[in-house]
Design brief:
Elements: E1 3-7, E2 17-22, E3 28-35, H1 40-50, E4 54-59, E5 62-73, E6 77-95, H2 103-109
Parallel strand pairs: 1-6
Antiparallel strand pairs: 2-3, 3-6, 4-6, 5-6
């Protein structure tokens, strides 16, 4: 059975998840999880700073999502297509004017 490796060639919908929770009285912890791509970190930071939220620190991570798809052609040959995609799982310690984000500001970002 032949195996073909394509870097993220399959159309995979990785849901974007954003969650904000308090991380003490003076900061919040923003979790984001989405498909990784060039420029993602810059885009996230721009969105956060556009609403005047300060990023105090960040933990940036990416995990490999392995995918497999079996295709049967004419019920004779079976091919296995494998693909890997990176999932960005980032955490940002943020504050607004020296305090944790309010619920309404958390909704704007999340």
């Amino acid at each position: 059975m032949p195996t073909f490796l394509y870097p993220c060639m399959l159309d995979v919908d990785i849901a974007t998840r954003i969650h904000v929770k308090d991380d003490g009285p003076k900061k919040s912890l923003l979790h984001s999880e989405t498909a990784d791509r060039p420029g993602l970190l810059l885009e996230i930071i721009q969105i956060i700073t556009d609403v005047n939220v300060d990023v105090e620190s960040a933990e940036i991570d990416a995990e490999v999502l392995a995918l497999s798809l079996f295709l049967s052609l004419c019920c004779v040959h079976c091919f296995l297509f494998s693909s890997t995609c990176l999932v960005a799982k980032d955490k940002f310690h943020v504050s607004y004017r020296g305090a944790a984000l309010s619920p309404s500001l958390s909704q704007v970002i999340g």
